[in-house]
Amino acid sequence: MSTARLIDGKAAAATVLAEVRGDVDALEAEGIEPTLAVVLVGDDPASHVYVRNKVLRAGEVGIRSLEYRLGADVSADELLELIERLNADRDVHGILVQLPLPRHIDENAVLEAIDPRKDVDGFHSENVGGLSQGREVLTPCTPTGCLRLLQDSLGDLSGLHAVVVGRSNIVGKPMAALLLQANCSVTVLHSRSRDAAALCRQADIVVAAVGRPRMIDAGWLKPGAVVIDVGINRIEEDGRSRLVGDVDFASASALASAITPVPGGVGPMTIAYLMKNTLIAARLQHAAAPEA
Ligand code: NDP
């Protein structure tokens, strides 16, 4: 039986997008048209869906988007030239290169080529370092969205023990840094952690970013824990294909005090924070720009 309160990511994302819409209107009144450039390389079907959704969402909140679709055989130099052009274009405020890139292109070199002030994914080393130093920088969309869900749910997070399961550069590590900045005590678990479930049972907050369907069940949770499930895993069940998280929702929601569903939890927040980052980037660039 489920006792946990459902953390509604769709509703939270709608609130964030309404905030963005208001900011877009304010910027437009100053003569600035917030613009996001999205670069898609190759023909990975999932990447096409992600890009389409990002462009659609941008349009809904009044952000102009520019799409650049390049063939899978594009050279690294051609891609880097495009990024240079976008870096230099004062009318482009955010640059997003959809990952993964084809194997012959060094992903890291591409991410490092993006002007950190236009790095709306927050993956550039200057932004990663800035986050770790507690500076105000562009931060990765998924963990930033998770932090917002937690703050909306719990208010001040100071002193709470957060366990992040997973240490990837795009979710686990920045999540840990953001929670630390929000004054949590943070434990990060990974595939080499010993007694991971026992460590996790000490957590007031659990953020699961593992990529393993339903790995975290009630046996990993302290009663009353708040659970954020980042995982998106496609499985075959009862003869049909469905999306499930890294958390066993049925089991965990009997013990947790609040929990995100999959889908409808973290996913919508990721895209909402991409829009928010585009706005932050536009503001930063115009605040820094010399008067014409
Ligand atoms: P990665 O595969 O990059 O990282 C997974 C992490 O989980 C690694 O750090 C790994 O440890 C750790 N791990 C693996 N097995 C275990 C285990 N048995 N116990 C503890 N830790 C373990 O994945 P991502 O971070 O990119 O993504 C995680 C999940 O989040 C995926 O399902 C992905 O689809 C989803 N996702 C969802 C998004 C959204 O918008 N909702 C956005 C981004 C991702 P180690 O480092 O030791 O290998």
From TrEMBL:
InterPro entries: Aminoacid_DH-like_N_sf (IPR046346), NAD(P)-bd_dom_sf (IPR036291), THF_DH/CycHdrlase (IPR000672), THF_DH/CycHdrlase_cat_dom (IPR020630), THF_DH/CycHdrlase_CS (IPR020867), THF_DH/CycHdrlase_NAD-bd_dom (IPR020631)
Pfam families reported in the protein's UniProt record: THF_DHG_CYH, THF_DHG_CYH_C
EC number: 1.5.1.5, 3.5.4.9
Classification via HAMAP family: THF_DHG_CYH
Keywords: Amino-acid biosynthesis, Histidine biosynthesis, Hydrolase, Methionine biosynthesis, Multifunctional enzyme, NADP, One-carbon metabolism, Oxidoreductase, Purine biosynthesis
Residues that coordinate or bind NADP(+): G166, R167, S168, I232
Tetrahydrofolate dehydrogenase/cyclohydrolase NAD(P)-binding domain residues: 140-284
Quaternary data: Homodimer.
CDD domains for the chain: NAD_bind_m-THF_DH_Cyclohyd
Catalytically driven reaction(s): (6R)-5,10-methenyltetrahydrofolate + H2O = (6R)-10-formyltetrahydrofolate + H(+); (6R)-5,10-methylene-5,6,7,8-tetrahydrofolate + NADP(+) = (6R)-5,10-methenyltetrahydrofolate + NADPH
PANTHER family the UniProt entry points to: C-1-TETRAHYDROFOLATE SYNTHASE, CYTOPLASMIC (PTHR48099:SF5), C-1-TETRAHYDROFOLATE SYNTHASE, CYTOPLASMIC-RELATED (PTHR48099)
PROSITE patterns with a match to the protein in the record: THF_DHG_CYH_2 (PS00767)
Annotated Tetrahydrofolate dehydrogenase/cyclohydrolase catalytic domain residues: 7-121
Gene3D superfamilies xrefs: Leucine Dehydrogenase, chain A, domain 1 (3.40.50.10860), NAD(P)-binding Rossmann-like Domain (3.40.50.720)
Biological pathway: One-carbon metabolism; tetrahydrofolate interconversion
Functional note: Catalyzes the oxidation of 5,10-methylenetetrahydrofolate to 5,10-methenyltetrahydrofolate and then the hydrolysis of 5,10-methenyltetrahydrofolate to 10-formyltetrahydrofolate.
Gene source species: Stutzerimonas tarimensis
Similarity annotation: Belongs to the tetrahydrofolate dehydrogenase/cyclohydrolase family.
Protein name (record): Bifunctional protein FolD
